[in-house]
Amino acid sequence: MTSPVYWHPLFYQSVMRVLYGKHFEERYRALAELIPENVSVTEVCMGDAYLYRHYLKQKNIEYVGLDMNPVFVAGALRRDIDAHYHNVAADPIPSADYIIMQASLYQFMPEHKPIVKKLLDAATNTFILAEPVKNLAASSNPLLSCIGKYSANPGHKHAVNRFNRDSLLDFFHQFKEFKESKEIKGGRELIGIFKK
After folding, report:
1. What's the CATH number where 132 sits?
2. From the DSSP assignment, how many helices (H) and strands (E) are in the chain?
């Protein structure tokens, strides 16, 4: 069953604002700074398309948003965003200059490596992966850990595994295309930049 956080875009955004606090906008700003104007972008697991609506739209990019949550897709379509219902694991990825995945790779663990290979194949220039490295699921408090693990089901399964900083960096280095990492202000997410 889909977790309540994914029931509506406004609820999703509210939860994200609580989790990231004063650094909420930073997580989008950091990604937007990596995207130049006049390029094509495919964002997988786009959520409420906040990155596009508030940061990328003004860059005159050709954007496609993909998500397996029909509520998020419908919400994006109502805003005239080119959005599609999409299963990253099963469906082909539309090719673009830049492919972006933000805070979603953990949902595919332990089958995450083939997902990244697939996203890399779809990128003609750069693949950008932002992933949480500080999580409620890793809390020493059993109740908080349980909430963190079982409140992140976007519609296909509960994601109980998470990265930390070291494990994510180790994962990045498994790919020859990996060029650099950047920490998002606040320290909750790490960005990996992969160049073709």
Report:
1. 3.40.50.150
2. 7, 7
8 A C-beta contact, residue 29 and residue 55: yes
Q: Supply the range of the domain harboring residue 34.
A: 4-195
pTM of the model: 0.82
What pLDDT, in 10s, does the model give residues 95-129?
999 999 999 999 899 999 999 999 999 999 999 99
167 vs 182: CA distance, rounded Å: 15
> What are the distances in angstroms from CA 137 to CA 26, 156, 161, 182?
22, 18, 8, 22
Query: What integer pLDDT is reported at residue 80 of this predicted model?
Result: 97
Q: In total, how many domains does the chain have?
A: 1
Among 31-35, 71-75, 132-136, which is the least confidently predicted range? 132-136
Residue with token string 């390029």? 39
Cβ of 136: how many Cβ atoms within 10 Å? 18
Joined tokens for residue 145: 């850990």
β-strand partners of 192? 129, 181
Angle between helices 24-32 and 9-20 (to 10 degrees): 100
What phi, psi does 195 have (nearest 5°)? -110, 140
Q: Phi and psi dihedrals of 46, rounded to 5?
A: -70, -15
